[in-house]
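Example record used in the benchmark description.
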Amino acid sequence: MRKLALAVSGAILLFSVWGAARGQGAQSAAASIGGITPGSPDKVAVFRNADLQTTWKDLEAKQVINKRALDGGTYSINVRIVRESDAPLVHAHSIDIWIVTAGTATAVTGGELLDPKLRPRTDDMAGSSIRGGAEQPLQTGDVLYVPIGTPHGFKDLKGFRAFLIRTDVK
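Model output (structure tokens):
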């Protein structure tokens, strides 16, 4: 329960920082994010909007879907791009909190993960699709919480960008 509280607190903090950064316009940070330098989990980190926007552009140009902004061992904060071809997942030991920063998508959650296969170097399962999941439209500003063991994936992506906060709870 403590880890869940930490994850939710982290999401609120990140959301607050993002909102404050948006209000500051194109101010740049001393810490590099336009090539994010992963922060230290034992120090305060501020992720400025201008730097995040540069990171999004860098990821898209390099066709990279994820940049870790903070790695705390049992939790991480990521700048994340989702593609239509990304497999739906089930995490055996962690929760996801998605904070939508741009665009739209439809989240498909729950149901049954079809053709599950263990992902290399993880205890996560990836599948070909989800049967019987609930569909939730997402737009900028929405937050999606995915509990442990829940199949989840995305479809109908249009400029979708999100922060992904993942934390182990088992």
